[in-house]
Amino acid sequence: MRYLYLKTIGTIKQGILEDLIGSLDFLPFKVIKENDYPLFALEPKRNQYYAKKIIEHLILNMPADCEKLIAITDIDLCTPVLTFVFGEAQLGGSVAIVSTNRLKQEFYSLPANIGLLIERLLKVCLHELGHCYGLVHCSNSKCVMYLSNNIISLDNKGKKFCVKCEEFFDKRIRKENYD
Ligand SMILES: [Zn+2]
Ligand SMILES: [Zn+2]
């Protein structure tokens, strides 16, 4: 049996995780927790963490029964060329990382909204998981695989795959898990 691992890094509320698991139910899952922040990936000048460095570290420490691993963290993620990312994944690989930092209304000086946070987190997780299964960005602006690099476009798109992406995703999930 292979599992979808959800790994929390830092402080992620239990309730958020439970809601997320309820929606990512196409594979059996396991949850693991890491309280320490990945200081090896910190860029002190930006007070952000390089997503790719964390992904590389996660790949080296994958549990043997892991099919895909999504790390969920509250730290702010970036890349050398992008000022921030909501998440990052290995295309066609096994590992993705998602940050709740800029999904919180508080980041935009607005009152907290846990329902909205969970919906945004689900969209980013599904998007990054789609990349792990080989999906690229979709031109359908309502599809969860549509590229959203700001919170408005993230809110504007749907939380599901379009018909075309869904078909691709289903085929891949079946192939990788039951062949
Ligand atoms: Zn993407
Ligand atoms: Zn699509």
The first-to-last residue Cα distance is 12 Å
Helix content: 25-40%
C-alpha geometry? globular
CATH H-level superfamily title: Collagenase (Catalytic Domain)
Average pLDDT metric: 93
Total separate domains = 1
Main CATH class = Alpha Beta
In order across it, which strands form the biggest sheet? Answer: 2-1-5-8-7
Radius of gyration: 15 Å
Main beta-sheet strand count, sense and barrel state: 5 strands, mixed
Write the H/E string, N to C.
EHEEEHEEEEHHH
Can you name the CATH architecture? Answer: 3-Layer(aba) Sandwich
* Class computed from helices, strands and strand pairing: alpha/beta
CATH topology: Collagenase (Catalytic Domain)
Question: How many β-strand stretches?
Answer: 8
Uncertain segments: none
Q: What this model shows, in words?
A:
The structure is a single chain. The chain is α/β, with parallel strands linked by helices and 179 residues long. The protein has one domain: Collagenase (Catalytic Domain) (3-Layer(aba) Sandwich). Helix content is 34%, strand content 20%. It contains five helices and eight strands. The protein has a five-stranded mixed sheet, with helices on both faces. It has a three-stranded mixed sheet with strand order 3-4-6. The longest helix is centred in the last third of the chain and has 19 residues, at 114-132. The protein is globular, with a radius of gyration of 15 Å. The two termini are 12 Å apart. The model has no long low-confidence stretch (mean pLDDT 93). One zinc ion binds at residues 127, 131, 137, 147. The site of one zinc ion has 8 residues, from helix 5.
